[in-house]
Amino acid sequence: MKLTNYTDYSLRVLIFLAAERPGELSNIKQIAETYSISKNHLMKVIYRLGQLGYVETIRGRGGGIRLGMDPEDINIGEVVRKTEDDFNIVECFDANKNLCVISPVCGLKHVLNEALLAYLAVLDKYTLRDLVKNKEDIMKLLKMKE
Questions:
Q1: Residue 124: left if φ>0, alpha if ψ -120 to 50, beta else—which one?
Q2: Which residues are documented as binding site for [2Fe-2S] cluster?
Q3: What is the pLDDT along the chain (146 residues), one digit of tens a residue?
Q4: Which long-range contacts (CB under 8 A, 24 or more apart) does 52-57 make?
Q5: What is the torsional sign of CA 23, 124, 109, 82?
Q6: Annotated binding residues
Q7: Domains along the chain with CATH numbers
Q8: Is residue 69 within 8 Å of 78, Cβ to Cβ?
Q9: CB neighbours of residue 4 within 10 Å
């Protein structure tokens, strides 16, 4: 399964913020430049992450963004489920769009559904804290001050 850029960027933003010193504010420009991602895309991602409570946005002079909850409370499987818009990895997963003639007897959709559930189950085992255990290395690569 391939994650959308939206989910990829969401996870990267969370990793970036988790690698920051606790309470430190970051900004969209800084994250966009670090990852070479469009600021416009990141604004949408960060807005949604804020709605979900994963990030806190502080407006105005001296404002910025930071994690809205502890990294150990941010489950990766949950983030993926909330940022991916479509888990229909094959046509037959969507009853409204399914035109496959063998769908009623096909075993493939059951195998793929099992694989999708296993994929999500693995993601459910991890939190954001798990992804930043090597925080010092991440900070160096992101060129953050320790």
A1: alpha
A2: 92, 100, 106
A3: 789 999 999 999 999 999 988 778 999 999 999 999 999 999 999 999 999 999 999 988 888 999 999 999 999 999 999 999 888 878 888 888 888 888 888 888 889 989 999 999 999 999 999 999 998 888 888 876 55
A4: 52/82, 54/14, 54/79, 55/13, 55/14, 55/17
A5: negative
A6: 92, 100, 106
A7: 5-87+127-141 (1.10.10.10)
A8: no
A9: 13
